[in-house]
């Protein structure tokens, strides 16, 4: 497995070098809207400490990240009135990982609506901003 690259896109988001539409932040964790959402409200939750994925993460960072993912997931489910949620996490390219900074996907699922492809079309920024406001209000 390759080493963690501190210049990956999520590290740049953490450093404020790349914009993101934030829904939650505390001392250890950031959550923001996925720009290529698989469904309405698709959110990413990342630790502020760098690791490539789950395999090289410090277990304490991972444990904290799961707790924060639960907080975000509940807010996403409430705000989006989702029928269900998928919490997904990929490790290495063969498994579908495309950004090499640990993250959990929080993907709302709606009865009768198929998920869009992983890393598909870019969403409208204004629309994502409005959804993020709704999720923040449900935290
Ligand atoms: P993965 O394939 O699990 O590594 O997922 C990476 C996710 O990050 C994909 O769902 C992308 O749509 C999303 N993504 C990539 N770049 C950005 C970005 N700058 N801001 C928000 N989401 C991003």
Description:
By secondary structure, the protein is of the alpha+beta class. It has a single domain, classed as HIT family, subunit A (2-Layer Sandwich). A hairpin with a 3-residue loop joins strand 1 and strand 2. The protein starts with 8 loop residues before the first helix and ends with a helix. The relative contact order is 0.23. The chain binds adenosine monophosphate. Adenosine monophosphate binds next to loops.
Can you describe this structure in just a few lines?
The chain is α+β, with helices and mostly antiparallel strands and 139 residues long. It is built from 3 helices and 5 strands.
Question: Notable features of this structure?
Answer:
139 residues, single chain, 29% helix, HIT family, subunit A, binds adenosine monophosphate, alpha+beta, five-stranded antiparallel beta sheet, globular
CATH superfamily: HIT-like
Distinct small molecules: adenosine monophosphate
Q: What is the CATH class designation? A: Alpha Beta
Q: State Rg.
A: 14 Å
Q: How many β-strand stretches?
A: 5
Look at the structure and give the mean pLDDT. 97
CATH topology: HIT family, subunit A
Number of domains: 1
Helix/strand-derived class?
A: alpha+beta
Q: What's the arrangement of strands in the largest beta sheet?
A: 1-2-3-5-4
Biggest sheet record: 5 strands, antiparallel
**What is the distance, rounded to the nearest whole angstrom, between the alpha carbons of the first and last residues?**
36 Å
Discrete helix count: 3
Question: What is the succession of H and E elements?
Answer: HEEEHEEH
Kindly estimate the percentage of residues that lie in beta strands according to DSSP: 15-25%
């Amino acid at each position: 497995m390759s080493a963690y690259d501190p210049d990956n896109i999520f590290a740049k988001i953490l450093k404020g070098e790349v914009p993101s539409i934030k829904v939650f932040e505390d001392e250890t964790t950031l959550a923001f809207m996925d720009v290529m959402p698989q469904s309405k409200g698709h959110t990413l939750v990342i630790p502020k400490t760098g690791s490539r994925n789950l395999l090289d993460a410090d277990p304490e960072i991972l444990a904290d990240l799961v707790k924060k993912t639960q907080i975000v997931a509940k807010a996403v489910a409430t705000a989006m009135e989702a029928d269900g949620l998928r919490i997904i996490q990929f490790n290495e390219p063969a498994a579908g990982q495309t950004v090499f900074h640990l993250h959990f996907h929080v993907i709302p699922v709606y009865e009768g609506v198929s998920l869009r492809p992983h890393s598909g079309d870019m969403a409208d920024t204004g629309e994502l901003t409005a959804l993020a406001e709704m999720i923040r209000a449900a935290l």
